Amino acid sequence: MNERTYQVLVVEDEPALRLLTMCELSRRGFACDAARDGMHALELATERRYDAVVSDFRMPRMSGHSLAIELLGRQDRPVIVLLTGVMEPSQAMELIAGGVDDILFKPFDHGLLAAKLRALVERRAMLCASGAGRGAG
Prior knowledge:
Layout: E1 7-11, H1 15-27, E2 31-35, H2 38-47, E3 52-56, H3 64-72, E4 79-84, H4 89-97, E5 102-105, H5 110-130
Parallel strand pairs: 1-2, 1-3, 3-4, 4-5
Helix pairs in contact: 2-3
């Protein structure tokens, strides 16, 4: 197995779910950092470049929606996957149309999340390498 290790920021206000997601992604070859909410995630994303951000949608201080909007405005933005228990279909369509890469509904399969993350990050890297991904997002 010669897969590249991608840097992922897991943003979740529930400590047990945050730890579980980090452990499951780490087990599948990702290097993970943790943030307790969107504000904390923005601080970390300013200090370090992440290949992907996996964020809960509803959190105190700054929601996953607000975090996604902030990250989408960055030139070298990460892949963004939101996790949610409840979301209006129109809201989900707005986020996907705005550049969010995927939305998974809780409970979700960590193996599927890992596979999607790897595929999305690798697709983004190929697009950027070809010049087609510049300014995308």
